[in-house]
Fold this sequence. Notes:
Layout: H1 4-13, H2 19-23, H3 28-41, H4 60-71, H5 84-98, H6 113-124, E1 130-135, H7 140-147, E2 151-156, H8 167-173, E3 178-184, H9 196-209, E4 212-216
Parallel strand pairs: 1-2, 1-3, 3-4
Amino acid sequence: xxxxxxxxxxxxxxxxxxxxxxxxxxxxxxxxxxxxxxxxxxxxxxxxxxxxxxxxxxxxxxxxxxxxxxxxxxxxxxxxxxxxxxxxxxxxxxxxxxxxxxxxxxxxxxxxxxxxxxxxxxxxxxxxxxxxxxxxxxxxxxxxxxxxxxxxxxxxxxxxxxxxxxxxxxxxxxxxxxxxxxxxxxxxxxxxxxxxxxxxxxxxxxxxxxxxxxxxxxxxxxxxxxxxxx
Length: 230
C-alpha cells in the first residue's frame, strides 16, 4: 500500500538536482555582468570589466561564410568529431604555428572552448581524481571539475612570482590521487605567460608522475611573445 505521504516525499525528491550539480557554484563573471547590465538599464554609467566580450563585431567574411553554408544546405549532421575539412585545417595550423604533429583523426571539434574543456574533464575524471589548478584562475575551471566528479585542487601562486606555477609548487601538490593539471598561458585573469624553460620544468614533473595536461590555449594570439613559448 502507498500512502500519500510517501508519494509526496517522492514527488518532492524528484525536484532536487543531482549532488554533483548542487556542488557547482554559479559563474561570478556572469553574475557581475548581469549586475552591470541591470545598472545600465537604470541609466547608471558603468565600466563593465566582467565578461571578456570582443570589442569588435564578427568579421564580414565569417558572416558571409555562415550565411552561405546555411543557404547551401550545410545544416545536417556531421561526423561526431567535426567535419573532416575543418579538422584538416586545424591539423595544418598546429603543425605550422605550434610545431605539433596531430592528424585529423586525433582532433575533435566542439561547440566552443568551454564545451571542449567540459568534454575533456568528463572524459578524464573519476570521483577520487584530483585536478591541479594554479590560482588565480578562470572561475569555471574548478566548477567544471566538480561537475565531472573530480576534485579541484587549487595551487595558490604569488604576485612576486609573477602568478606562475613553479616546478617546486607543482611537485609539492602532486599526490597519488592527482589525475592532471590545467594550464592556461597567457593566463586568465593574471595575464602571465610562461617561458620555455618554465614549461620544461613543469613538463619534467608531469612526465615523471604520468599526469594529463589540459592546456587552454584560448589566448595564444594575444601579442607577440618572442621570449615565451606555448
